[in-house]
Specification:
The protein has about 100 residues and is an alpha+beta fold. It has two helices and five strands, in the order βββαββα.
Length: about 100
């Protein structure tokens, strides 16, 4: 996955928020050093799979170990369940229409 190194020298607040295009990360410090970035879903998914995939004979031929496949499937199913949870809870909300 995409990774960044943080060197912390003071109290900071880190916020992670899913967006329609990826995961937004905001870091708020004590000084004027706020930082914001969005990690696109496609990049995160590709990086996650690349960390577990093993190139074999051709450029487009990748394999995974049974353990890696299980791990990736668990992550995919967990994300799917959380997505369904968002849909289910949102569907139950009362929509307020402004006058």
């Amino acid at each position: 996955m995409s990774s960044r190194i943080l060197h912390l020298t003071s109290d900071v607040e880190v916020r992670l928020m899913p967006t329609t295009t990826g995961v937004a990360i905001s870091i708020f410090g004590e000084h004027d050093t706020d930082s914001h970035a969005v990690y696109p879903w496609e990049e995160m998914v590709n990086n996650l799979i690349d960390e577990h995939a093993i190139p074999v004979l051709r450029k487009d031929d990748f394999r995974v170990t049974p353990e890696s496949q299980q791990f990736l499937m668990k992550i995919g199913n967990s994300m799917k369940a959380r997505g369904q949870e968002i849909l289910d809870k949102t569907e139950k909300l009362i929509v307020v229409v402004p006058d």
